[in-house]
């Protein structure tokens, strides 16, 4: 790969900026697409993303711009790091190219119940799509702290080709050909992180978080396998790895959101106070509905959705969960 290869990153929030920094450290010419000209100018002139990643300087080979069409001209790849809710409005602009599109967002669509690979495939030819997912808090990645993550595509060669755009020894990428497993792991761990945050907010101890991680992993695997993904993928970075990080790491927005709801905040107010995307809210609804369609029981995930939608109170939900008939593990 040439030193001057251009890679575009769409999304100047936490994750897009962090990935742009990794690509810049890898020697790429990076174009980071912000929401508008005002944001782009601010980031270019201050050389910092003060709102999302304060204190981390933007290097000279990272240029921020607002027009995604201009940003894609001559680019070898696009990394899509906007929230999942933007996919249908933004992705049509990437439909015509032949460069790979690396999806870095994590979630399920609450209406269509699609995974990220399916959401992207509605707009982009399937062979252009790769997914990047795994335990990776943006702030740590941005600071160059060691991170291991998974790149998935329809075959291993495509996943490796997508991974090759990143060439930073602090950012180690494993490849996978299980798009379904990687997409499901990244989406569902956010819902379990909300449950872990709720346990924290209720003042429960470490035991409840360990139970949420373990039973949550079991639910994630059940739904993933029913959707055609591989159990082994859920035991890797994009499943168990990201689940542990998000359920225990204080940087997790989904976990913090769960804790705030448990302390009495309304869901909308908790999202507003975090001030960044909390993907687990939409995914909880989607996963509950998907499980219903497939006839699968997911007690934790369904409880999170029912608490957030107001159909059950959290203390009652905990009682119901703990009173379920005992059964073999
Ligand atoms: N942060 C992390 O540690 C990680 C995040 N991810 C995933 O990456 C995805 C993005 O998350 P993250 O960067 O953290 O989110 P943030 O909330 O940090 O940033 C969201 C960005 O998206 C922009 N945005 C929101 N809505 C729109 C829209 N309709 N049109 C254009 N721009 C929009 C925001 O602009 P504005 O500032 O103007 O609102 C902001 O730049 C999520 O799916 C998340 O799960 C994955 C791994 C790690
Ligand atoms: O996905 C993430 C880390 O891998 C970030 O999780 P949160 O969105 O909960 O902060």
UniProtKB/TrEMBL annotation:
One GO molecular-function entry: NAD binding
Keywords of the record: Cytoplasm, Lipid biosynthesis, Lipid metabolism, NAD, NADP, Nucleotide-binding, Oxidoreductase, Phospholipid biosynthesis, Phospholipid metabolism
Record EC number: 1.1.1.94
Entry GO CC: cytosol
HAMAP family in the record: NAD_Glyc3P_dehydrog (MF_00394)
Subcellular compartments: Cytoplasm
Statement: the UniProt record of this protein carries the keyword NAD: yes
Entry's Gene Ontology BP terms: carbohydrate metabolic process; glycerol-3-phosphate biosynthetic process; glycerol-3-phosphate catabolic process; glycerophospholipid metabolic process; phospholipid biosynthetic process
Glycerol-3-phosphate dehydrogenase NAD-dependent N-terminal domain segment(s): 7-156
Taxonomic source organism: Mariprofundus erugo
Highest rank taxon of the organism: Bacteria
Lineage: Bacteria, Pseudomonadati, Pseudomonadota, Candidatius Mariprofundia, Mariprofundales
Entry protein name: Glycerol-3-phosphate dehydrogenase [NAD(P)+]
Function: Catalyzes the reduction of the glycolytic intermediate dihydroxyacetone phosphate (DHAP) to sn-glycerol 3-phosphate (G3P), the key precursor for phospholipid synthesis.
Residues annotated as catalytic: 189 (proton acceptor)
